[in-house]
Design a protein that fits this description.
By secondary structure, the chain is of the alpha+beta class. It contains eleven helices and 16 strands.
């Protein structure tokens, strides 16, 4: 019986199917080893295929150089009959997605161990110039020995015309970073955001961003912070509010700047304490970066979580009472010492009375107050009313003003303004308006 082949690889069995293609167990006869072959069906024009081939091979070659215990090893890449493939090490294990979907709640230390291992693998990849772009539970394999491995490096570079086959968007939208949602260039901090989404779901059993459709999910990713994980699951240590909030910050500059920073905080969660300025996820606070030290700091040097006001008063009051008690005792001792030393001294004579000082009468004159300064009249403005379906990012003269809805009205200075409305997956809409004083113009637009 002749076995089906992909290039030189002999197909043994089908492992699974995904939106982009099929995963096979195969034999590499050249090296006599079992491999996993991940195929990617491409529906591309000639130009698109050439662009994909260049980018895919470049990224796959970079990923193939990543020799790390938490990253799947890529042995080979190629294409045949308009199907691209990656030959990877064959892993004996199960996807993290399947473990989570089974409904069993992992122990907290096990969750920390898995996510820390993934962060270790990402940190190594980032140091070598590789960004994954599609971190999610289905791209994490848990081996029989408990090791977590990241799969699917390089898949995220498939061109957009192939990403939308049968209406399927490459990668789960609920794990995308805000910069991915709006189509900006991404770096290592995008992977950190996606890892934060995965951690939140593992801790609480619920995704931080959900909705009835892709647009609703993307809107929440751009504009909302999820409930603090301790609010969803009260038995979690409060430090996870800080770790999640820092990983899911909307702006990349406010997140962990490297995956190994996040891994360090996770592994130290039992002794780690958040900055005093920290506000829990969803409260709008911007946490500071924790100071890093090679050794755990003594508890008195740790920055503490700011407790409730009543608790804070109760904790601080005994300290101040002790200080006042010591101070009072010192004053009493000093007074007694002065009294004992001075009791044999002659009485102090009264001061001689001061000589009479002639009385001087002052004549007061009323001073006229300066006239009040009148405020400058405000610059004339007009109103722009917005009605966008399902939603769109609003830019005025290149500056982002918000998302409509909920934004439905803008006050703009008089003159010409270029209005642009963006929604990922659709062509942008733009229009130049001439705003007149105290008049209202309306834009009603539906993305199709």
């Amino acid at each position: 019986m002749i076995k089906q082949k992909i290039d030189r690889y002999e197909i043994i069995s089908e492992i699974g199917q995904g939106a982009m293609g099929v995963v096979y167990r195969a034999l590499d006869p050249l090296l006599e080893r079992t491999v996993a072959i991940k195929t990617i069906s491409l529906d591309l024009s000639k130009d698109e295929f050439e662009e994909f081939e260049h980018r895919f091979y470049r990224e796959a070659k970079l990923a193939g150089r990543l020799n790390h215990p938490n990253i799947v090893t890529i042995h080979d890449v190629g294409n045949t009959d308009n199907i691209a493939y990656m030959a990877m090490e064959f892993l004996e294990g199960v996807e993290l997605r399947d473990i989570m979907d089974a409904g069993a709640q992992l122990e907290l230390d096990r969750i920390v161990e898995i996510v820390s291992q993934v962060a270790d693998g990402l940190a190594f990849a980032h140091e070598h110039g590789v960004v994954h772009r599609d971190i999610k539970p289905s791209n994490i394999m848990i081996l029989k020995n408990g090791v977590a491995k990241i799969t699917d490096f390089g898949i995220a570079l498939i061109p957009s015309s192939s990403r939308t086959m049968s209406g399927v968007v490459l990668g789960s939208p609920k794990y995308m970073s805000p910069e991915q949602v709006v189509g900006q260039d991404v770096d290592r901090r995008s992977d950190i955001f996606s890892l934060g989404v995965m951690l939140y779901e593992m801790l609480t059993g619920k995704p931080p961003f959900s909705g009835d459709n892709i647009s609703a999910i993307m809107y929440r990713i751009l504009n909302e912070m999820p409930l603090a994980p301790v609010t969803v699951k009260p038995d979690l240590p409060e430090i996870f509010n800080y770790i999640i909030s820092k990983a899911l910050a909307k702006h990349p500059d406010d997140r962990y700047q490297s995956a190994d920073e996040m891994a360090e905080d996770l592994r130290r969660y039992r002794i780690l304490q958040a900055p005093l300025s920290f506000c829990a996820a969803g409260s709008g606070g911007k946490p500071r970066t924790l100071e890093r030290r090679s050794k755990p700091r003594p508890i008195e040097d740790e920055t503490m979580l700011m407790p409730a006001r009543a608790e804070l008063d109760a904790n601080i009051r005994p300290l101040w009472w002790k200080r006042f008690a010591f101070l009072g005792a010192g004053v009493i001792f000093l007074v007694m010492a002065v009294f004992l030393l001075s009791r044999d001294e002659p009485a102090i004579q009264k001061e001689a009375q001061s000589p009479d000082i002639p009385e001087v009468k002052l004549e007061l004159k009323a001073v006229e107050p300066d006239p009040p300064l009148l405020p400058e009249p405000p610059a004339p403005q007009g109103t722009l009313s917005l009605a966008v379906t399902p939603w769109g990012e609003i830019f005025v003269d290149g500056k982002r003003e918000g998302v409509s809805p909920p934004l439905n009205e803008l006050r703009l200075s008089v003159g010409q303004h270029r209005i642009e409305i963006r929604n990922p997956g659709f062509p942008s809409y733009s229009q130049t308006l001439d705003i007149q004083p105290e008049t209202m113009l309306k834009i009603k637009y539906k993305f199709k």
